[in-house]
Design a protein that fits this description.
homotetramer, alpha/beta, 2 domains, nine-stranded mixed sheet, four-stranded parallel sheet, elongated
Chain lengths: 444, 444, 444, 444
């Protein structure tokens, strides 16, 4: 846990100014007695472990805490005069269309905002050079979006010039920009936020963090993640059927997970049909008594089949180095560990004169392009609702997240300062080792 | 929130005695350096809201906190000499088979327990009068259970004589009994726990709380709930198609929710296709300007169709009283609000000479008899793993739960002291009102 | 089989007149060499059983045969001057939106028709008294319809005055009307056809037969049927889980099937979990040695649980007579056999002092309001394609169907002359008896 | 159509001998009056097109016809003395477990057979050198198989020595062997049949034809095919979401289809989201005005995104020749057209300086390892039922199939004499061209 590295100060949310407009009518009626509203002073602890807490208290340090999300009784923007805009950036993730839908619905119905712009194709849509015109979004247009995977607005990778984009926001008359995107995009949003603050143009920049890998910090989970690993389970179950259908059958599945193995772990736990999980956070050997190949061989001897799940970022130290490659967002492209393992496993058993049948499955984009499953839909709805509440209240430079089961506001800078990982000594990895029966250590 | 009503003392977990056996081999290897183990002193706060916390600190009160779940380095039972038993009680719930499977797998593989009994048909199976013989469970038998809804062990409602059941446990040589069941069953388990303590027979009673209605206290959620409301979404989406397919079409769906409307709320949020949600926690009128019928009429005028979701326990004050009825577990049986509403709505529009087409859908048991969805499978696995860890560590009279995103131990007495409800002033209900656009108040 | 009751003459399709326009460009290119086109002379036998055939040949009778569907090289209507209209009638059925979509797409892209009207709310939309205005349909509007159950155009039951409707078609300038509906609606379409022929107005009336019960004559199957019984399987599997989850558990599922038991049979075969199938075509007793109750009792004795599937039209002779009721289309409303059986079964075992747990499931509209499954989508696409081909070729008074695996043209009068039933001596029922193990005869 | 190449003689089914045992009791009761039984004389025409028929009749040729499947009143084998065996060969296909289940259930319950052997790992299981022991199958063991993809018995590719395998069958006392497998395996079964006939050992060899590609001749369709293309639709829909989610987005999906494009065609028709379908039966150019690349470019210009589905056997003439490779069954291994196209498309647009985003999806084994969908389950059940009826009646050297919607017996030699293809001039391909809007010809 990196709790200790965050100070209370760093968790403070920026407000554009005094909240002088009343929250629209029906919301007030809903809790006329004053209950049910959160103020900016409603906060929960970042760390609630009693021993750590007592240590902090003993030292007299202020306890890091987080602002709770929720509608504010008074808001900063005058809804009928407000223009909000939405942009989706980076790779697809289940739930993008849900977030778009709810931002539109919530702005329109809960606040009465009438000008809602859909920026097309990610940050490209804020750079006039690309010639994309924003869509004027209405409830009618977005009503059925969640039936479809992908993003209605289109997306793109990479960032554009900050000043050019802020110019564009000003020219369009945008008051609040909702940026749905991963850590690269949120860093871009941070730049937008800082430029807007510098100019004092009163534009709010609100992020909805997106990462199919579930690896953003200080979040219970990221939207789309549950749907994605559920989709991944189909591939695992298929691999299991293939493995059982042949003598010495091996099913090998490569799953998303560039820097973290959450999807691989969850798919293994959910199916109960995986014997080896390989993730970026835990090194393993191929060769040697403790290595994967020998362990796999033992498994085949005992049970006649095996299923392996490998996250795309696992075992990169094993793959022969080649020229460094970056994608458009600047992420390092990985060597294909799946194909590499397939060939090495086949080669090993050939050298052992042992006939095996290995089936390799790479579900690739099929796990991220599906519509969100019901629980994720509810989760997206809440993230989007609270993003609108936060934006209307005049908050900026922040993202909406869930922490310890409550929706909260986090400064953008905090969530992009690192990536969450599977802790090799934590309970998730332990549960994987328990559930798979794989050796706790596969490294000499 | 009822945090304030719980004292630290009430949250203390009972231990059978000194933990004198080392946790089995591979577990120690997993974190040989000592990281990754929880002790009984690892606790998290029950309430982490900073203002409440400061108030408590100011008063000098001890802060209520909860014991974290997890394997203990030393355990109470000698695994190879231990006999564990599993019983499932009450109505079906998605995930029962997952919990059974993991308790068996975890006991067998992670601890080396070799005698695992499956008690058949709920508490009946502990009463010799019924003649059910326990099954000797093996990994092979339970491996594929999660493909199936229901419970492999069978279930029944109602309780049996505590002494008779404890006699039976002693006769069978059971050391740990895992009770998977709802609040009635956990109250029964509490009786077993107390009788065992009285006798000093060293039997551990560990509960895995089950409630499809998601209404147990001090839990983030209950297992099976996500799967259940996802299944309910099919009924809602069907009702929506029916409503849109006819002039003045009305889709009316009755969903589970005896005392709490969580399923109804979540199904409405997840589909985005519901216009009225009726739950036990929020009273409503039928007649009058503010009543449901007039609101429904207005909706039809404006949009030509409507979808209503009603929890089975909603509007009980509206249904003509009849003789009190109880089910075998002593739960009050409700009048059928769905059929009642169907008839009243049809009657109203007939009296208005307005032609409507109402389609009534009661998915009933179909939402609870499905296999668990992937996320629920992972959740069940964790509950079951931690139940086994707790039992082997010699804990008793407790249930495993998740609180603020961590798995914890809670005394049985605490979780059965009341039922969780949808807070009419809280964020869940607000999100429903926002998402449906229904009147915040439908009562004069 | 009622083959013998149909003469060749009755199978002749009416043509509006000479086909003097060439089929649009790309279609000609597709098979420039003349292969791949069907002429009106391409026909297949109605009956291909060799013995029956030889008998007919011996008698010198002309063999009844059916016109094959498909594009014609020359067509009757000039596409660019043609207006087509679509109407959906009666209850929902999976695939309605697929048929609408493909009629629009095929008319627009394959023929170049530019005026495509969507008649709203069934035949009501052709009666000006209701004030529904037709929608001008475009490919863009219908592109995504198959993601949704129901009908985009809305529907209604019952017929309207034929002359009024033909007046309306003429006033709208409609050249081809596609009627998607059940046998009541196709009888209405026959009236429209005859009135148009009488007036000589050159309007083509083409039917796409719809019946979720799969009970139209001379058709391999009806669209939506596969999807519907697949949806029904969920209810059956749920009932099975409920039945197995209790001592003497009984799962009772009521499925659609007013006059025929196809859905009940198929759901039983597909799940392999049903012990008794009750359909309208096969009478059964409740009481007596051979009756259902005794058979059910024996099943419980032997296996401890049972699953019963009952079609809504089964056992109507058992239910106490009450006043005859008709729905708006004039179909007789059935007594609720499901509720009746539930109560009788519970009563029987109570009288026997045998504790049983019966769970009753009525999935009702949920099996007809789902989107079409992939195979049904292809089937709907083909029906719709061939409907457009037929209409453009100037055919009228006919429906598109599939017979012995080929798409064909059938006169409307032929398909509405009776309803297809499960043959109690045929292979489908035999397979049900074999698969369930139920007594071949349950009547004294 | 290759009807004309088959003579009536070639369609005759071999019978082992006189049917002297009565079909077991309950079956007789089922149709005591004699209706509902088929005799060997019940046949349907292979070709029922009236014009072709009249031509044949005019020439005085006997009309090729096919024997109908179904139980026979008298049977060849004495059920209680009969041993049946089941073997599954070749690649996985949805429904294998359904066929196994029903062969066991039908043999056991409908005929009273008590010795049912499951041969493990395909033909390997009949070669003692491999040391696989047959499983003794019971209803209990196979009851739940259809919940799982794959084959419970395991499978393998390739054939073993015919004499060795017949020796093994004799040694095991097998009377009827059911071979579930593709055309290679059915050729192997033909050899077994001929060897058994030569030896006069009275062993019946019955085939259940399996091909996920739907390419066996004289069959309406093959089992598992519907399920497989439905699974493929997920990949296509995912590709569509990816394509729409990016500027100039291209989704490229490779699907199974070694020699025939049925899966690719059906997936395109079912989704309505594909713009180009490439199959082995229809050649296409990459370059040139009419080629794929130019057509794709035009599509992007007009619509901004495109989806391409390519069958694995398509465009093999375009891929640079390399050394011939065969799999263990002797099937030619194809070059990977998917990867080839991906690279060529990316290269083309790079050379055009046009930024595109291509996402490549290869669902590979995931579409064949799923459990069968409900309609396929019913289909498998019927194939298996009729296989058992045929075997018990003493038929041999034949497969069970469906033709023109009826279940029939076909000599093994007939179905393995070629592979069914998509007819480039037929209605299936026409429907694809109509539905995708792709150029009818993409070859210069």
């Amino acid at each position: 846990m990196s709790h200790s590295t965050i100070s209370l100060e760093e968790l403070v949310i920026t407000n554009l100014g005094e909240k002088k407009f009343p929250s629209p009518g029906w919301q007030r009626n809903f809790s006329a007695d004053g209950t049910g509203w959160h103020t900016d002073g409603d906060r929960i602890l970042l760390c609630d472990h009693t021993a750590e807490l007592e240590a902090s208290l003993a030292k007299g340090e202020p306890l890091p805490s987080i602002e709770l999300a929720g509608p504010r009784k008074e808001i900063f923007f005058n809804p009928t005069q407000t223009c909000v805009a939405i942009v989706t950036c980076g790779g697809l993730c289940p739930g993008l269309n849900d977030v778009i839908r709810t931002i539109v619905m919530q702005s329109y119905y809960a606040y009465g905002v009438r000008r809602i712009l859909g920026i097309q194709y990610g940050y490209e849509g804020l750079d006039p050079a690309y010639g994309h015109r924003p869509l004027e979004l209405t409830p009618e247009m977005v009503m059925n979006l969640p039936y479809f995977g992908g993003t209605f607005l289109g997306s793109s990778r990479g960032r554009k010039d900050t000043k050019v984009m802020v110019n564009r926001l000003e020219a369009l008359g945008v008051n609040i920009l909702f940026v749905i995107g991963g850590d690269g995009s949120q860093r871009g949003a941070t730049d937008l936020f800082e430029e807007c603050q510098l100019r004092g143009n009163g534009i709010s920049i609100i992020g909805v963090p997106k990462t199919i890998d579930n690896d953003l910090m200080f979040m219970d989970r990221s939207f789309g993640y549950q749907t994605a690993f559920a989709a991944a389970c189909h591939a695992v179950t298929g691999a299991h059927a293939e493995a059982r259908g042949a003598r010495n059958g091996i099913g090998l599945v490569k799953l998303m997970g560039r820097d973290s193995g959450f999807i691989a772990c969850s798919a293994a736990l959910a199916t109960g049909e995986v014997n080896f999980v390989l993730i970026p956070e835990v090194d393993f050997d191929l060769e040697g008594e403790q290595g994967l190949l020998a362990a796999l061989d033992r498994r085949l001897e005992q049970r006649g089949h095996a299923v392996i799940v490998v996250a795309e970022g696992a075992g990169q130290d094993l793959v022969p180095a080649s020229q460094a490659r970056l994608d458009a967002s600047g992420n390092k492209l990985h060597e294909d560990i799946g194909v590499f393992l397939r060939d090495r496993i086949n080669g090993y058993f050939k050298s052992q004169d042992k006939e095996v049948t290995l089936k390799y499955i790479d579900p690739s984009y099929t796990i991220r392009s599906v519509p969100a499953a019901p629980e994720d839909r509810v989760f997206c709805l809440n993230l989007a609702r609270h993003a609108v509440h936060a934006g209307m209240a005049g908050k900026t430079g922040m993202v909406v997240a869930r922490w310890h089961q409550r929706f909260v506001h986090l400064p953008m800078k905090v969530v992009t300062r690192g990536r969450r990982k599977v802790d090799p000594h934590g309970d998730l990895w332990r549960s994987v080792v328990e559930a798979t029966g794989q050796p706790a250590v596969m490294k000499g």
